[in-house]
Amino acid sequence: MMTVEAAGAALHDGNIVQAALAARAALVVGDAIARSHAVSLRDAGPDTEQGAWIRTRLSQELAAARTTLRSVLNGEVALDYPDRLAEALQLCRIWRELDAEFALNESLIVRELRERHGIVLPIPQPEVK
Description:
Mean pLDDT: 84
Strand content: under 5%
Number of strands: 0
Number of helices: 4
Low-confidence stretches: 6-11
Shape: elongated
């Protein structure tokens, strides 16, 4: 029979594995969504009704993403949940080319995942010259 402590540890380990998978997927999915946004804008054209609609839609999505990112990063409790960090990481990957806030916070999230939760992500680090 498993003790309560052992069951809790097994559950925690399972949650970390799931969060690690989610964080790794966030890198790929976030990049794919960012590319999709860029293609949609390019294909719609700058001076079309469709282009205006897409820009409005992306502006609304960016505002919602900022709210989500800030709720994760401004709450100490949220940092204890690697799945929330993985969600925020995906947002950073989507919006980092358009908003410096996301670019800056991506490395913070990666560090929190590594140091707090032991999740190491395969993100290339800038070369030191």
